[in-house]
Amino acid sequence: MPGRASTPSRPVNLSVNLHPYGEGRLLLSRDVTALEQAEAMRRDFVANVSHEIRTPLTVLAGFVETLQTLSLNDQERERYLALMAEQAERMQTLVSDLLTLSRLEGSPPPGLTDWVSVPTLMRQLEQEGRALSAVFNPSRDRLHQLVFDSLLAGEIAGIPNELLSAMSNLVGNAIRYTPSRGEIHVRAFLLPDGRAEFSVQDTGPGIAPEHLPRLTERFYRVDRSRSRDTGGTGLGLAIVKHVAQRHGAELKIESTPGKGSTFTIIFPANRVRSLRIAACSEPIT
Asked: Which of 21, 80, 149, 216 is found 20 to 30 A from 206 (Cα to Cα)?
């Protein structure tokens, strides 16, 4: 039954049971809101995974049947095989992201013994970002305007592959959803209070306010058709959220429809070491 303080946005569910107790009755009430929410999340997760895998499997099965039953010329066969490889890669990416989430949830949080160089992370992000932009825009005159400002000459305490995964997910999303020739600005700098901030700002289509609270949910998509066109699995921001939480960091999302979005990870001061403001070089474009 719904609790007295239950609202549509904040449901409260109670389980009430009456049991024999000696010569009388014992009434037990229990708040089962968290249990029911966990069960609903489990059902949604299984349904979403099944849906995401079923689509490429259906496409693969259809092409296999076509190759088995029809007489195709070499050009047609190559085209079908390329489409099959694309769907297989999509499933591999999905499974890889699921395994990453499982590992993040099941492993202890990182300590303060391993330190990751911020300039090294930024160089890796720049290489990956420019390569991904070239994939989405084969014509050089349509490439994104990428700017990487690394104003930190220091280190962050954490696990290198997790930090790189979270940051590259944000850069990758910006590239996927920003139109050709659009601007993407990636920054890393030191805040006055000693915290470190990493941000990715784009000039993409932006996100409506009602979607922002749910963006880090697994498989949540603002536009499903567009996400499939760009190769997204719907798990990238969930991975970013988990990595940020494990490192004691804060994930902030700001967006204005029609103007673009800014995704920011702010690391606590105790995870920042030997940082100084470097001289700002000319923007990389």
From this structure: 149
Residue range of the domain that includes 75: 34-106
Of 219, 220, 234, residue with least CA distance to 176 = 234
Specify if 55 maps to a domain.
Answer: yes
Residues 161 and 97 both lie in one domain: no
- 156-213: per-residue pLDDT in tens? 999 999 999 999 999 999 999 999 889 999 999 999 999 999 999 999 999 999 999 8
Q: Could you tell me if residue 17 is inside a domain?
A: no
Element (H, E) at 200: strand 196-202
Determine contact, residues 261/255, Cβ cutoff 8 Å: yes
Q: How many domains does the chain have?
A: 2
Please tell me the chain's helix, strand, coil percentages from 3-state DSSP, rounded to the nearest 5.
50, 20, 30
> Where a domain ends, among 56, 78, 106?
106
What CATH number corresponds to the domain at position 236?
Answer: 3.30.565.10
Strands 183-190, 115-117: pairing kind: unpaired
Please name which of 224, 222, 219, 187 lies closest in space to residue 202, comparing C-alpha atoms. 187
Q: Identify whether 268 is part of a domain.
A: yes
pLDDT tens, residue by residue, 93-137 = 888 888 888 888 778 889 898 999 999 999 999 999 999 888 888
User: Beta strands 145-150 and 183-190: pairing type?
Assistant: parallel
Query: Once rounded to an integer, what is the mean pLDDT over residues 258-271?
Result: 95
Can you read off the two tokens belonging to residue 121? Answer: 């992370």
Exposed e or buried b per residue across 174-199, where buried means at least 16 C-beta atoms within 10 angstroms of its C-beta: bbbbbeeebbbbbbbbbeeeebbbbb
- Of 77, 59, 78, 58, whose CA–CA distance to 68 is shortest? 77
